[in-house]
Target: Paraquat-inducible protein, putative
Amino acid sequence: MSDPIPDVPVKPARRSLTSRLSIVWLVPIIALIIAVGLAWQNYNDRGPLIEIVFDDASGVRANETELRYRDVGVGIVESVGFTDDLDQVVVSVRIDKAVAPYVDTGAQFWVVRPEVTTQGVTGLDTVLSGVYLQGLWDRTPGESENRFEGLPSAPLLATGQQGLRVLLRSSDQTLTGNSSIIYKGVEVGRVGPATVAADGQTVQAEAVIFAPHDALVTEATRFWNSSGFSVSLGPTGAALNFGSLATLISGGVTFDTFVSGAPLAQDGTAFDVFGDNSAARSSLFTRQDGQPVNLVAVFEGNVTGLAVGAAVELEGLRVGEVSGINGYFDTDRFGDDNLRLQAVLSIQPSRLGLEGDSSAMETLDYLQQQVREDGLRARLVTGSLLTGGLKVQLLRDADAVAAEIDMNAQPYPEVPATQSQITDAATTVEGTLARVNDLPIEELMQSAIGFLDNASTLVGSAQTQAIPGEVAALLGDVRNLTGAPEVQALPAQLGATMASITGAVEDLRAVMSDLRDADAAGRILEAVDQVQAVVTDVGTGLEGLPELLATVDELAQSWRDLPLEGVVTQAESFLATADSVLGDPRTRQLPADISSALDSLRAVLDEARDGSLIANANSALASASRAADQLATATDGLPALSAQVNALVVQAGGTLSSFDENASLMRDLRLALRQVNSAATAINDLARALERRPNSILFGR
Model:
């Protein structure tokens, strides 16, 4: 057998590289290069990736939902995920490189969806295109940021708008979120969503006043609720008041500045929203310096009638108001399951006498001192019997059990409370109705009916019906009387009489002037002083009379021893005469008469000094005349009296010579002096007789 022939290896000839290249391969290579270049350019031109965190991202789709600025797309959503705790949604958005520098820390984002509210319909364009993200930032590049918190709704100020941002708050149902701010019927702002404050007692909402209307808001501006309607009764009838149909349905807030001169409000200023216009105006006269201090008080029992806004009073002065009310249940503290009333008291430090800028701790320290030292307690009292409303009263109870403010209580420090003093309006009304029911209504009705019957009989009688005619006749007689010429002439006669009286008064003033110029009062006083000296001499003479009588008694005793019957007879006659003189009532009355005359003269002088000389001149002269007569009787037997009286008369005559002789006062004075002169003459004759026969007073001859 023959072996098989092996195969001869055949190798193809090697071709050169150039022979293997083909121009066809350039097409994919160029396409690849272009694709890579475009990819690089696209990667290099794309903007940064930012993350926006929302509570709810319904309708947001990756690679579909746009990010818009002024309704122009500036980015696209790349992915939608969750945070690590799955509590929020994280939306990753790739923004354009051109706008990336402006998306800084102040940028805001929210989801635009179709929404139907009482204010209208918004986001209709998203019905066909789907939801989109809206961004808002300023036109100034800032520090870059890659994570943002999304807003639940659109901000109050849209892109490019300017205005004043304020915070509205209310402790009752006077604030409605997402409503309009109206000024004189024009919408000038918006109220954002309303939220409950951290204390759980007040509702607050951010609001904005669009420019240029923001210049209308000052620190003295007052806001009040304009939604709803009110009915008022007045002299013109009933009136139904409401702002507008829109505010009636959706609610709204209006404002006004009642006083001028206050500075303009700044961004972030907080304003209280009042229930109506009258409450807003009243707040202008209520001092509210500084922030109020909140306290809580827990009252026993299920009490009704206390409302938000009720007054908190201290010694009759309003120092705050009730800003919140809720139930309070604490088994561990009270040991029972009873429901109690917890009231939040908003106290103004300035109304307690503290400075307006006092801190809350300073106010609490002051109240703590009042609670510890003076027994300050809170209690409920009746504010209105008609409505049954209550108010909180802070009173000082010196007998209260020691207590203090619980600074650790929640949500605010708790002030101790005491027993409430509430008047039951129902019981009061029942008592009033019972007293009304006990009134003798039937007896009163019978009395009224009888009175009306008697009145009807009286009015219907002929005599009563004749009264108008008689009155008319009487008026006619009066008219005739007043029209008589004699009555018409009375005014002229009265005028003449008044002129005469005026002339007499002028004459009287002239006489008074003459008396004042002539110093009449001084001269009369001088004359009276001399009269008083004469009376003193008379008293001195009378003082020697007892000694004279004693001497006579001794002489009579000595004569008893004489045997002469004639002497005895003369002695007996002398004694009889002396006894008759001494026993004479006129002699006994002599001191009293002299004293009375002096009192009369002093009264005349006092009246003359007081300026009543003209009115009392006649009385003074009469008293002087009587005094002169008494002096003439009293001075019997006194030798020196005549000379003094003569001198007095001469001096008085010289004094009166300076006065007007025709005056009535002068005539009266001259008459009186004549009488005094006559008395002086009698006294002079008596004195001469005594000089001739001194013993005649002893023997009666």
User: Anything to note?
Assistant: The two ends are 245 Å apart (CA to CA). The chain has a mean pLDDT of 73.
